Amino acid sequence: MTVVNHYLLGLAGGPTAAAQMLNARELSRTMPTPTSTIGSQNALDDAFDAYVDKIKPGASVNVEYTPLEAKDNKGFIDATINPDTYARNSTAIDTGNPYITINPNVDRALYAHELGHVAGKQTDVGHFIRAARDNPMLKKALLGSLLLAPGAAAALTPGDDDYATSLGLAYAAQAPVILDEINATRHGLGILNTAGMRASLGQRGKLATGLISYLGAPVLAAAAGNYAGNLVDEDVIDPVAIQ
Rounded CA gap, 45 and 191, in Å? Predict the structure, then answer.
């Protein structure tokens, strides 16, 4: 592996792992804090309604909600392996309404982020991004691209100076997910502002830790794929070199 790949793999892997641990700790809280969702949900729900009406006048969205409280240390393990365990948004199968599952002990900024996903879908751009993320066929295609494209690019490009290409392809494969998460955070901050609960620096940091895991994954995939691809292209003869 080239020096730059070693550096970027470590650069992405360390912060990504740390962010996942911090995120899991917040998601699996077993006791509420002064800024937990449980004490702010009603105000945030009202702010969500006002915010949606502002970005799409006349719109009315019925959000269904299910609390899922972490009871013990097993919650931390669950949240580390699958962050969506205690904070996720989806669509209710029976009603078609937006559906949020949240640990009521998590910081209200995370609940606002999940509401931000729903609010974002009310705009044309946000709806397009979310539809791309949720499309099952596109999801499979992009996952395959994330796993294969960085390595293929490196294998087909003579030499080792091709990491930028691998990284670009990896980020392109994750674009719908990354854009949807950024959009949800943007709207979530707007909902907090509407509720008179402007996010503190610490709360913005908690939102950032969630984004880091999404931003770091393509770097790791690109570094690993690029390394594997460059192992292959060492045996490929450059036709220009033999002329």
Answer: 9
Contact 102, 87 (CB under 8 A): yes
Q: How many whole angstroms separate alpha carbon 216 and alpha carbon 194?
A: 31
Count Cβ atoms below 10 Å from residue 4 Cβ, excluding itself. 15
Q: How do beta strands 87-91 and 98-102 pair? A: antiparallel
Q: Dump pLDDT digits (tens) for 89-146.
A: 999 989 999 999 999 999 999 999 999 999 999 999 888 888 877 877 655 544 544 4
List the beta bridge partners of residue 88: 101
Question: What is the DSSP code (8-state) at residue 31?
Answer: S
Residue 123 is given by DSSP the state S
**Residues 228, 222: Cα–Cα separation, whole Å:** 10
Determine the Cα–Cα distance for residues 28 and 40; give it in Å rounded to an integer.
18
Residues of the chain with pLDDT under 70: 1-16, 137-173, 215-243
Q: 């045996």: which residue's tokens?
A: 235
- Helical ranges in 82-174 per DSSP H: 108-120, 124-134, 136-156, 163-173
| Amino acid (one-letter) located at 156 | L
pLDDT at 133: 78
Question: How many CB atoms within 10 Å of residue 12?
Answer: 20
Q: What is the pTM of this model?
A: 0.74
Residue 4 C-beta-side C-alpha neighbours within 13 Å = 11
Distance of alpha carbon 181 from alpha carbon 179, whole angstroms: 5
Ramachandran region of residue 196, left (φ > 0), alpha (ψ -120 to 50) or beta?
left
